[in-house]
Each structure stands twice: as C-alpha cells, then as structure tokens.
Amino acid sequence: MPRPLSSDGLFWRESKGWCARVLVTIDGVRVRKVVDLGTRDRVVARRKRRELLAGNATAESVAKPETVARYADAWLDGREARGVRIAPDERRWFDHYWREAIGNLSIDNVRPHHVQSVLSDCATGKLRGPTGKRLKRASIEAVRGVLLRILDTAWRTELIRENPVARVKLADVVGRNEARRERAILTDAEINALLVHPAVHVEMKMLVLLARTIGGMRAGDLNALQWTAVDLESFAVVRVPRRKTRKPQPLEVPEAVRPYLERWWREQSKPTDGAVFPVRRGARAGETKSQRSSSGYAKRLRRDLKRALGVAIFDHTLGERGRWAERPVETWTQRERLLFIGTHEIAPVDFHSCRRAFATALARANVNTQTAQVLTGHSDPRVHQRYVAAETIRALPVAALPAIEVDPARAWQTFLPNSALKRRQLCGRDCDQFEPFPSSPSNSLCSRTSLSSTNRLPPKPRSCAASA
C-alpha cells in the first residue's frame, strides 16, 4: 500500500526521514521514483524537492546530509525576504568568517572547537575584517551571533541535537579582563559650541539638536523620520519611529526647538511627506536614507566637533584655498583626548553620544525611572538605571568619610616620611640612636644641642659599632 503524500508532495519514513516521489526520465521513459531527501527537517525537505523538480540538483546530491553553507544560505534568504534589517550584515559576516571554515561541513558535524577556533583567530588578529582592521569585542560578538542564530533555528527544528555555539562563551575567547568601554557623553557646552559654529552643516546641527532634545532619537530613528509624523501646523508633536523596538512613540517637541524644526521644513520647500533628513546628493537625492548610512554620522560628528572646539583650525596657507588642520596631539586637553581618542574605559564620541547625553540629563534632573523609560524608549528600566548609577556614585556621603584630623597649613608635611626612618635604612639595623626629625620648635635639634645657629647642620649619628 503506497504511503499517503502530503500537500507538498513529501512523505515520512522512520528510517530515512523525508522522502519525495518525483517523475524522472530514464531511457526516454517517464518513471515515478522515490527520492531520499536526506533530512528530517520539513523546511529543508521542501527546498530540496524544489531544487530537484527545477533540475538544479540530482537525486544523489539531495540525498547527502545538509551542509552549513546550504542551510545558512536558505536561512539568510528567508531573513532578507522578511525584511530583517540586519540580514545584509549577517550574510556579509557569514561569508567572510564562517563559509570557508565550516561551510562544507555537515550541519550535524559542527563542534564547539570549530567555532572557538574561528573566534580565537578573530581575537588574536589572524582573521581580520574586510578592510584589514583587527576586530574589537563588539564585532567578534556579532560574528558569533550570526552563527548562533543560524544553528539555533536548526536546533529548534530538530535538525541537530544541540547548538555548538552556545557552548563557546565570548569571555573564554576574548578574555574576561577586557573592559567594556562606554561611549563618551557630550556636555551641553560642547553641543552648544557645535550648534553655533558656522563651519558645521545645518543638517548635522538639526540631527544633533533633535537627538538631544526629542526622546534621544537614534540615528536610525532620524533616518526613518517622515514629515507625515510631524505636526506641520504647530510643530509641537513628533511621532518618533523607534526602529529598534518597532514601537512608534508620539513625543512633544520642546518649545525652544519648534522654530528650528519649522525653519528646516521651510528650507526644504514645505514638503507634506518624505524623509525629514533625505539623501542630499547623488542619484537617490530626496529619497529616504538607508539604515547603513547612519554609520557615517560618527565621523561627521567628530570632524565637526573638532572644528567647533578648536581642535581643528582652518589654515589659509595650506593649498590654494586653505584647509582644516588639527593641532598637535601634545597640545590637546584631557577632555579633547577623551572625546576623540578615548581611554581604556571610555570610547571616543560618536552620534549615539547625543542619546546618552539626553539620558544623562534625565538622570541629573532626578526624573523617575518610569518616566525616563518612556521618554527614551528603553524597553528595560535597568538600562536607564546605568545612567542614574553613573550620576549618583560619584559623590560620597559625608557620613561615609573617615575622620581625618590634620592641620590644613601643615597637611603635606604629615605625609612626608620621618628622617629617622631613612637613617635606619642607611644603618641597616634597628636602633634608636638617631635624633628625631625637627617637626616642632620644642622637639628640634637646636633646643637640645649646643648649636649656636639653626643654619648649622645637625650632628652626624653615632655608628652602631661604637655604641656596641
């Protein structure tokens, strides 16, 4: 008795998994044949059957176990078809880091040591990015994440028994002592210097102004912001897209910002739809910016901020028309080094620093966590608690300070070592045959010796051998 076929032309065998009945031509005769698809995943079986019917695969090739590369290509195609924002980046990461290393392996033969080997090469610099730069911790985490999600889907569909990437922890590869660097936070004075500088383009000024004052909008939110989401009558309300959480949020525009937003609208010929910050040049001028274009805001912001703060100065003597030249790094202040170079704990400033400045201002204004979570669009209240903790732990309560009784006029002298201790070190043994340090007039050498003047040197200490 023939096994019943499903609606997609597949049937199940306990010993082999999914199989398909197809018509093949043998010696000019059409013959119905049962083909083993070599998988227990129904989604993979459907894809293999489509390839078989289209003539892109043979019965022998589809019977082989599913490889990592084939499964990943189908997974990435599905992500791009659904419009997942990071799908192009995921394909680029997989092609550059994983395809050559494990792409030809059967998906059920991938082991944790395969994963750890690739990530270790990324951490040590043996495997670098497409531009030749060494990967940082966040980039290595992204490389691990794409394979983790691919194999997690295979594990959930019972194509593999476990996800080998889950066993490889990033701390075991990168190191547990590497500090997670927080981004530098722009102060209001630095933002104001940027807004009033004549050499900064008006688009960058509007981007920084809206990100700092309206919900701490991210670069992706500003790229996706449309004029249809703005109240064009009073410019009092903006519906922030919130591309990360996909939850649009209406927020009030501060009264001081409304004239600038209205002027920006008039400068663009009063549009009723389209992007608030469209593409300015090229064949796509006037269209909505892609999500990847936001990566250029960091470089533009640092360039304009250097000009606004005087780190870069326009030199008319350079070239025919002159150009901007930076001051030597040795002349930079500590704050300028932190903003543009960073430290072991603080990363250089980027466009997200405007959002961090907004969240920090809420923490300093003692806005409660629930209200701050709504204003910033954070999905977890613990995210805002980081800014609150950063602003409150700096001041130590007076009651927690130790009771230190030191004369302010002679505070530093109390920290100086006693000269008798130095003499003991020179002598090489413990003995109390040295005159004490003249710390007070009553205890000075002049009051207990026959020195006629304080300008004379004190007597030399007696040797330990003589006392013996």
- Tell me the structural class: mainly alpha
Largest sheet: 3 strands, antiparallel
User: Helical region count?
Assistant: 20
Mass-distribution shape: globular
What do these coordinates show?
- It is a single chain.
- The protein has 468 residues and is mainly α.
- It has helices at 42-54, 59-62, 68-81, 87-102, 112-124, 137-156, 170-174, 188-196, 202-213, 219-224, 258-267, 296-309, 334-340, 352-364, 369-376, 381-392, 411-415, 419-427, 445-448, 464-467; strands at residues 10-13, 17-26, 29-36, 182-183, 237-240, 249-252, 312-315, 323-326, 346-347.
- The strands form four sheets. The protein has a three-stranded antiparallel sheet with strand order 1-2-3, covered by helices on one side. The protein has a two-stranded parallel ribbon with strand order 4-9.
- Helix 9 runs parallel beside helix 14 (352-364).
Topology:
Blueprint: E1 10-13, E2 17-26, E3 29-36, H1 42-54, H2 59-62, H3 68-81, H4 87-102, H5 112-124, H6 137-156, H7 170-174, E4 182-183, H8 188-196, H9 202-213, H10 219-224, E5 237-240, E6 249-252, H11 258-267, H12 296-309, E7 312-315, E8 323-326, H13 334-340, E9 346-347, H14 352-364, H15 369-376, H16 381-392, H17 411-415, H18 419-427, H19 445-448, H20 464-467
Parallel strand pairs: 4-9
Antiparallel strand pairs: 1-2, 2-3, 5-6, 7-8
Helix pairs in contact: 3-4, 4-6, 5-6, 8-12, 9-14, 14-16, 15-16
